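Trying the structure run again after the queue cleared.
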Amino acid sequence: MTANEFAAWPLHLTATTAFGLESLVKDEVAALGYAVEGVENGRVHFVGDAAAVPRANLWLRCADRLLWDIGRFEATTFDELFEGTRALPWERVIPADGCFPAAKITSVKSQLFSKSDGQRIVKKAVASRLGAHYRVGWFPEDGAAYPIHIQILKDVVTLSLDTSGSGLNKRGYRAHAGGAPLKETLAAALVKLSRWQPERFFLDPLCGSGTIVIEAAMIGKNIAPGMRRHFVSEAWPAIGPKRWQAARTEAERAVNGKGFRVLGSDIDGRVLKQARSNARMAGVEDLVAFQKLPFQQVCTKRRYGVIVTNPPYGERLSDAAGVKKLYREMGAAFEKLPDWSYFILTAYPEFEAAFGRRATKNRKLYNSMLKTYCYQYYGPLPPRCGRREAIAGRAGGTSGGKRHETKA
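Done. C-alpha cells:
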C-alpha cells in the first residue's frame, strides 16, 4: 500500500489548543465540514481525508497545532511502549529518507514518566519498523521532517505526527512585537468571543503591536490565517502538493469584498510603528488604522461598537497600585461609550472592582502558562434600521487632534 493510498483513508486528526478555547476550535472544525469525534482539555479530535490536513492548517485560527494520530495503545512498561510503537504502520507515511524526531512528549498520571527515555524508545521503535520495511540498518534522515508527538495519559499512549511544524500562531506577519506579545491564536479567539461583525465599529485602545486589530481585520475579510506561511507537511508525499495547492486556491477565493475599518490606539508611538509594519505584512493595511492616543482620551460618536483589548496587568506592571489605577481609569473612559460591548483579557484578580462594574460573564483562558480571564460586558445590538450608523467607517479612519474620532 502506498502513502497516497493510506492518505485516502479517513484520517484521525487532533487540533491542539490552549485551555479554554476548545469550543471555539470545535466550531472551526465543524465549519470546515469535518466530523468532530470528541473534545478533551486542550484537544479537539476529528475525522477527515488527506485534504483536511492543508485545509485545517490554513484555516484554524484558534488552534495551536494539527496532529495526525497514527495510533493508540496501552503501555505501562517501556517494553510495551516499544512494541506498541513498532506495531504501527509508520512506513505508510514516512519515506526512507524521512527525518522522524520524537519532538514532544507529555506524560500525565502514567507509570512511564521519564520523558527522555520515552522519546528515545519511540524513536528506536519507529526506526526498527522502518528499517525492516525498507531493508536498511541506517537512515540518513536528510529528507522532509515528520515530527512525532507522544502523549501518555493514564497509561494510554497516543502517537501522532505534527503536520504544522511551527505553531499555528505563527501567521508569518508579526516581524515585530511588543514586550509581552499576545499569541495570534488567542487574539483571534478574543475577537471570535466578541461576535464582532464588520458592520460594527471595532477598537483596541491599548493595541500595542496590533495583533488583536490585525486578527479582527483578517476575520472580517475572511482571510485564512495560514495563507502567508509554510507547513512541515507540505513536503509529505502522503498529502501531496496538489492537495496543498487546491487548499490555497480555495482560501484565496474565499476572501470577501467587504469594506470596513478596524482601529487601534496606543500611547506608545514606537509600538504603533511595529503595528503598521505588521499590518502591511498581513496584507490588511487598507483595513486598519492606528493612532497615538492615551486610552483615557478615546472618544467617538459611533454607537454599538466593540472593544477587544489585552491591557497590561500584574505580570507587566510592578506596582499593584499602578494596575488598579489603570483599570479604574479604563472603567471611567469606557463609561463614555454606554452602548458599546467590551471584552477585556487580564490576569489581575481584582479587575472588576477596579474597573467599577461586574462583567456580564467571564471566561477562563490561558495566555501561554498564565491563567487569565476574559471579562465580557455586553452592550445592546444595533437596531436593524440604524446599523448604517454603526458601520466601522468605510470612508474610515481617525481624525486629528487628541480625541479618537471617526468621520462618516
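The domain at 11-162 is CATH 3.30.2130.30 (VC0802-like). Worth checking whether this holds up in the mutant runs.
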